[in-house]
Amino acid sequence: MFQDRRLGLALLAPATLFILLGFLLPVAILLSGAFQTPEGWGFSSFTEFFAKPLHREVFWRTFRLGLYVTAISAVIGYAVALSIVDASDKRKGQLVATLVLPLMISPVARTYAWVVILGKTGIVNQFLTGTGILDTPARILFSETAIFIGLIQLFFPLMVLPLISALENLPRDVVPAARMLGANWLQVFWKVILPLTREGLVVGGTLVFVGSLTAYVTPAILGGSKVLMLETLLYQRVSVANDFAAAGVIAVILIVMSIVTNVVLKRLATRKGGK
Amino acid sequence: MKLLLSASLLGLIATAAVAEDKTLTISVYGVSQDAYKEALYAPFEAKCGCKLVIEMGNSSERLAKLEANAAKPVVDVIAFSDANALEAAGKDLIQPVDPAKLPSLADAYEFARDPVGGNMAVGYTFYGTSIVYDSDVIDGVDSWLDLFSDELKGQVALPNVSTTQGPLALQMIETALGSDDPKFGKAIDMVAQHRDDIVTFYEKGGQIPQLMQQGEIAVSVIGRFGWANLLKTVPSARWATPKEGQSGGMNVLSIVKGAHDPELAHQFIDYWLSAEVQQKLAEGQVDSPVNQKVTVSDEIAEGLSYGPEMAAAIRFLPAKSTLENRDAWLEAWNAKVAQ
Amino acid sequence: MRLAGQTILFLVLAFLIGPFILICVAGLSGGETLAFPPEGLSLRWVARVFEVESFRATFAVSITLGIGATLLALLIGVPAAYGLERYNPPGANVIRNVLSSPIIVPGIIVGLALLRHLVIPLGVGILPALFIGHTALLIPYAVRIVSGSLVNLRVDIEEAAVLLGASRLQSFTKVVLPNIRNGIMAAFIIGFITSFNQVPVSLFLTGPGVSTLPIDMMAYMEFNYDPSIAALSGLLALMSLVIVLVAEKLLGLSRYV
Asked: Which of B50, B60, B214, B305 is least enclosed by beta carbons within 10 angstroms?
């Protein structure tokens, strides 16, 4: 019944053409600008870009924060996922809905909440000075720390949900079996749960890492122009200096990092197969 | 479902169609928009029976947008700094105004009538730039170099070099350091040295009142046009008179090349320069007037950079100097301060 | 062990939801500026939200954009999902990657690319360009979610319908569509909310008079530090919350995420 492959192609045509013409084409042209130099094709835009210490620092900072956010999300993510999986079915649904809810709220709203909390007159500082831990309010806003906190709150659910999915698919008797054989909790986690839920970790890790790399609203509001990340740098270069060369370079960097992350993590996931 | 789709498409088309009615698109600084609405936009819309579409933002961004859209301009009239206008003229982005169509221009101060030459722009306000501080936190500021003192550490927000105020601040710091190097070498080194003590380099002056109000900063450098707002938000704010003096600038209006209704554009500019509007803006402490017919009480004059004597006391940064040295400033800033 | 797990869970949920509840409360503040704890409670900032003209205008833009882009994405995405799942045409994998590509391209680049290579050179208006950008962003969601539904729908049901005399089109509309209806609804809701909250794509694609609500909120905050933004955030979140809760009740939305 479904042998008419041409009909299949016809069904796919509108969507594919739309994406090719309205999306991939303009993006490809923009990216190609990064490879154009006065002498023709080349990488000189890239070398020029990285020649500036500011740009190197922004690149490194973006990469570093992405790694921190992903690592912490993974560790706490597992803890949370394990708790949720343990819960009754009804609770599970509620808990998952609570996790999904922040994803539905505008990042502008979520980030401004942090401005209120982390500011010098915000509740964190009120607590710190009120209890005497600090004499004067601490500067938290306009720093990497503030961006880190904002990013974790944004992307944490994206780590937990795939982990829950993966944990749910674990055969029921694997963990009790390991425990019976004398393994303590740490060993159970490291040697049983982790390898078997590797795929979920990969999906979550990719989503969180790539999301952190490409975040705009949070670094813009919580970091300001002193603490730039790749996307806020891109915005600044374009809107103030019409520097499309830099924009193209940053664009290529971001996309390459996304693809590489995807590929590398996928390889890690399927490398050892199941034990 | 299909009905919804058609409805949304119709809606999109309708919005596009409405835009064809008599409109004037203006690009302005974002401060004091409520006051502007009352004093300028609403009365003008009533007079001309047209609609004003307003784009806001800092002038570097708006100038960049002007350049990006040069083939098909979106904006008709743009308000920016005299240095911006000089640059825009050089890039062929604006067209000359016709003084004959601007009767109010005759009432303006001499220096506002043709500030960048070739009738490319007309001044609509001038202002002084100085240090502002929260008197609840800081006792006082005597010198531009106090910005880098231990006492003010971690409480200062300076304008980014890409803003209009940035070079104005640098100019005063350079003067305070005893040099008149137009490349502001010493000033930039000073800022770079103390960069960790500076909270942030602001991109938009409108952020300062909220930062000060929240206690994030206690000191900053702004232009006088932002003073009324700051005082409203932070009643304990004070305008410093450092011993080296203040710098300042002039904001101008230009007509974008390819504007779709230059007649309407001229009418708008003339209205902005008229005694009527300039008086209202002055009384609201929004903008210092260039129209000599405007008179305000001494009290209000306090809040403005008012009068020819004031104009003489301000160390303006010549637009030409800005254009010539800007690349040098950006280079030095990016190399030393930004990282 | 269990207690530790529960505590961590509680702390994490507080971390995720707390700030957001805080901003809702701050929006009900009776004071002049955005602060927590708020000075007294009042609805005046909520009322003010409706008075700000730019919020109303951009809300209309965001809603139109959200509904329109999601509808279009579904209109062309559902057949695409069906074609991929049932027909396995030549080059299916390549096509799958193409259809998923909008997810890996950072939004800010999409907006810039559309501005530079569609709006300026071809004179495409800003609103249509936003429309194209948002639709492109939503197609991967539409295809993926609907594909998920199709995979679970047994092929022999359709074959049975055809055997019993239905045309292919009838088999699609009367057999397939009703069964993947939940998937389509889920895709619509997720798509709409994604488009509504989208910022980076719209950053470069806004112009005088045309902007989306999240971008307008950011611009507003740059000059006005009052609780109206908090109130607006609260209202929007309420809207999202209602949508999600209703969806969860009706469809068991968590299954699709």
From this structure: B50
